[in-house]
Amino acid sequence: MHDRQLTAIAGAVGTPTYVYDAALIRERYAALVGALAPRFPCQVFYAVKANSNLAVLALLRGLGAGADIVSGGELFRARRAGFAPGQIVFSGVGKTDDELAAALEAPIRQINLESEAEADRVLALAARAGQVAAVGIRVNPEVRAETHPYTRTAEKGMKFGLPLDRVVPLAVRLARSGHARVTALAMHLGSQIVTGAPFRTGAERLADVVTSVRAAGVDTLAAISVGGGLGIAYAADDPALDPGEFAEAVAPLAAATGLPLIVEPGRYLVGPAGVLLTRVLYRKHAGGRDIVITDAGMNDLLRPALYQAHHPVRLVGGPDDARAEVVDVVGPICESGDFLARDQSVAGAERGALLAIGGAGAYGFSMSSQYNSRRRAAEVVVDGDRWGVARAREQLEDLIQGEVTEPRWVSQP
Ligand SMILES: Cc1ncc(COP(=O)(O)O)c(C=O)c1O
User: Fold this and answer.
1) Nearest atom, ligand 1, residue 266 CA
2) Which member of 334, 396, 404, 410 is catalytic?
3) Model confidence over 386-399: pLDDT tens digits?
4) Sequence-separated (6 or more) residues with CB below 8 Å from residue 338
């Protein structure tokens, strides 16, 4: 994606607009598979939550990825994007009966169970439908990943997965139920993990659990999921997890169990491939700080407010002699937490300037909202020298869809 394209897109579609680089997504998919496939049999299931735009999903499906979903809404999207039910796995701690029923009806490849109570619901629904559900058990291997506390998912006492000592009893109960086949064990350690060590430890623990599950007589395992979480560099000198290091860390699990590994990357595949285009509305000085106010806010890109995440900001399309200055880049929303960058050196951030916020392809649009009654941004895909709108900017009418000034009252004496 070059500046002339970005300038043309902003001119035609307006701002704020997310722009995704299809070529870079292809490149990253190839790099990941290139690192994994020579070391062990593997299947990539893209974590839809990272960027669930239909065009992005269809692109990844075309490359051979499956879909890792966490809601009925993501199941709907994945199916619309052309994923076959057998290419879909379903994770998440709070699946509703409706969501489970939809997954069983499809039927998707596997539902990853995260509690005994959820297993009971799946067994009941499968029994009612006269089905044998293909299930995975998500294990909490109790591995701390050095990432933001809000993106760690595998520490003791967390809501995710099943504690290690409860996996075998559940696997046995499921296997004996007549309504479930335990096809996988799974883990997901967290997101934005930049070293291989936690994956190595998690893989070792999972290998032990596989041994115990098999020793207990459950012999239906067909794959092990090692989750997603591969970290990317948001700044030039940031560490990132090389897919080769990741592959080395988890390879012993495939060797020890003789099973193919499922990998569920989201951020790695799409994060670096997206920018958020925004225009500078105003600039002001206050308390010794230079504040650049843009037409994108925390409703468009939540990560800085939620995780104090860093995203690089740069001027698109000059002028070439624009002087870099240290500024805060903030949105128009009525929250002090509404910032996109703090203390960042940005050139030419004057009224009307077009800025690109980098690393915005993952957990950008998909975490966006209409807070402050702001229409959600447009999404555009660039593919070589062409580009196209993949999601139109919302209209004002979209803001009030389903709302009425006078509710249809129901009497409940
Ligand atoms: C079960 C599961 N798999 C995969 C992912 C993708 O993580 P990432 O985008 O860091 O690769 C997530 C993210 O939360 C997840 O919950």
Assistant:
1) 9
2) 334
3) 999 999 999 999 99
4) 297, 298, 305, 330, 331, 332
